[in-house]
Write a structure and sequence with these properties.
- The chain has 294 residues and is an alpha/beta fold.
- The protein has one domain (9-278).
- 37% of the residues lie in helices and 17% in strands.
- The chain is built from 9 helices and 9 strands.
- A 4-stranded mixed β-sheet has the order 1-2-5-4.
- α2 links the parallel β1 and β2.
């Protein structure tokens, strides 16, 4: 008998946190390896929020996933003994209350739920879809930069990379200052993600209300930018190699361990940022689009 697909919200947050901490303990930041765009084999739905990182961390060979039931319905079979990976979705819940005077009030919130999925390489009788052509990753990365419709102007000057909210501009060193082109675009994507938090775009507190560098608010915004850069690199098909210092890893381990909601919250915001840059209209909840589950 298969175990229930659903777990208590507090367990979901802790499980996600534990998975990320395990990678950090190995000296690897999970968002540094974007991989391919993880998606459902049957529906074609691209996973968002924290899910791409969770799926990439499994090390499976394909970006295609499906549920046990989807595999059977499609004429395939999940092999005996294979272990599922849980993705996270958010379901809207409306709470209705009536006070002593008979006045009704309603409050809405989202309940996180986990759904077990399997990678295509865990199934028999199913094949990956054919891909239509292949674009050069560097050309694709540049196209993403140029396609950011309401993005800030980017200047190549100086020896550091940053987004300046007051001026709504991005400053970057010249591409020749980077180890390679993927490193340049990864950094540019990071700053582009920051820029989506401006008041005229997605209005994130970490950009519009930032009090000082080094604050908790600043740290969360940095994690959003890290995830956002990974999502955009995945979209372009970029393979990045990033060497992280022990202090960088330790810093994130401390922050994520102290707040089990941080990774899910930041990854959700990063997904919204990436879709804004890509010009995609998606109805979001805290973890996944409302109308799309597996």
């Amino acid at each position: 008998m298969r175990k229930s697909a659903h777990k208590a919200p507090k367990d979901i947050y802790q499980e996600v946190t534990n998975a990320i901490l395990a990678k950090l303990d190995e000296g690897t930041a999970p968002w540094d390896k974007p991989g391919d765009c993880h998606q459902n084999l049957i529906s074609g739905h691209r996973y968002r929020g924290i899910n791409p990182a969770l799926l990439e961390m499994t090390g499976h060979s394909t970006p295609y996933w499906l549920t046990y039931g989807q595999a059977r319905k499609a004429g395939g079979q999940i092999r005996k003994g294979e272990h599922a990976t849980h993705i996270i979705i958010a379901k809207p819940v409306v709470k209705r209350e009536v006070d002593a005077d008979g006045q009704e009030s309603r409050s809405a919130f989202y309940l996180l739920r986990s759904i077990p999925v399997f990678n295509l390489d865990q199934a028999d009788g199913l094949e990956a879809p054919e891909r239509n052509g292949s674009q050069d990753p560097i050309e694709a990365a540049e196209a993403i930069c140029q396609g950011y419709a309401d993005g800030p102007e980017t200047f190549h000057r100086g020896d550091s990379a940053h987004y300046i909210p007051k001026l709504d501009i991005i400053e970057l060193p010249a591409m020749s200052a980077f180890h390679d082109a993927p490193a340049y675009y990864s950094t540019r994507f990071h700053e582009m993600t920051h820029s989506t938090g401006s008041a005229g775009r997605l209005a994130r507190d970490g950009v519009t209300k930032l009090d000082h560098f080094g604050s908790y608010q600043y740290g969360e915004e940095e994690l959003i930018a890290e995830f956002g850069a990974a999502y955009l690199a995945s979209e372009a098909g970029l393979e990045t190699t990033i060497e992280r210092s022990a202090s960088y890893i330790d810093s994130w381990r401390t922050k994520i361990a102290a707040d089990t909601h941080l990774a899910i919250r930041a990854a959700s915001a990063a997904g919204k940022a990436a879709d804004h840059i890509l010009g995609r209209a998606v109805e979001y909840t805290d973890a996944e689009p409302v109308a799309q589950a597996a």
